[in-house]
Amino acid sequence: MAFDILKKARTPLHVSELLARIHSPFHVTVDRESLVSSLTKKVARGDRFLRSGKNTFALRPEAR
Fold first, then answer.
1. Helix (H) or strand (E) holding 32
2. DSSP code for 10
3. Are 31 and 44 in contact, with CB atoms under 8 Å apart?
4. Going by DSSP bridges, is the β-strand pair 13-14/49-53 parallel, antiparallel, or unpaired?
5. Taking CA 39 as the corner, what is the angle to CA 33 and CA 58, rounded to the nearest 5 degrees?
6. Which of 58, 22, 21 is nearest to 39 (CA)?
7. pLDDT, tens digit, 9 for 90 and up, residues 3-60
């Protein structure tokens, strides 16, 4: 879900905005700490996501 939202946004988003955009169309409540942890692990592995600021994430250029 985070990947789809960041792909549509085409700009880095803070985790608060990601959570709001996940909840709105998908009607799913995601735990904030779980999302941050998951995205941080993916950033560390070089998997599709970048961290552009504190709790702010974007997609790697090749994943867009």
1. helix 32-45
2. -
3. no
4. unpaired
5. 120
6. 58
7. 999 999 999 999 999 999 999 888 889 999 999 999 999 999 999 999 999 999 999 9
Residue 12: HSE in the Cβ half-sphere, 13 Å Cα cutoff: 13
| Structure-token pair, residue 41 | 């692990």
pLDDT for position 54 = 95
Nearest to 13 by CA among 40, 50, 45: 50
* CA pair distance 25, 43, nearest whole angstrom: 25
Tokens of 12: 């880095």
What type of residue sits at position 12?
P
Secondary structure of residue 11 in the 3-state scheme? coil
